[in-house]
Design a protein that fits this description.
Layout lengths: L1 H4 E2 L2 E2 L2 H11 L6 H19 L2 E8 L2 E8 L8 E8 L1
Antiparallel strand pairs: 1-2, 3-4, 4-5
Helix pairs in contact: 2-3
Length: about 90
């Protein structure tokens, strides 16, 4: 786990660490290209909806991205699942 927290001598925190951990779990069916596509898609989704990345996986040629979005005021946070085509 320690090797995941530091890449190229730089410590990962917050979103970067979450993305690194989530992409590590992607299957190697499509190799590095699929992981890179899903990593980029996850970054776009998190920036778009504003929240915390929970998971990223590949399913049927799509990236399935799950983000925890904070609630408004006293509302509970909600889980948002988005499918992004390659």
């Amino acid at each position: 786990m320690a090797s995941l927290m530091e890449i190229a001598g730089r410590k990962l925190t917050g979103l970067a660490l979450a993305l690194a951990l989530a992409v590590t779990g992607l299957p190697a069916v499509h190799g590095d290209a699929m992981a890179a596509d899903c990593r980029a898609a996850a970054a776009r989704v998190v920036a778009e909806v504003g929240g915390q990345l929970l998971s990223v996986r590949e399913s049927g040629g799509e990236c399935v991205i799950v983000v925890l979005v904070p609630g408004n005021g006293s509302e509970r946070p909600r889980k948002v699942t988005m499918r992004v085509a390659e």
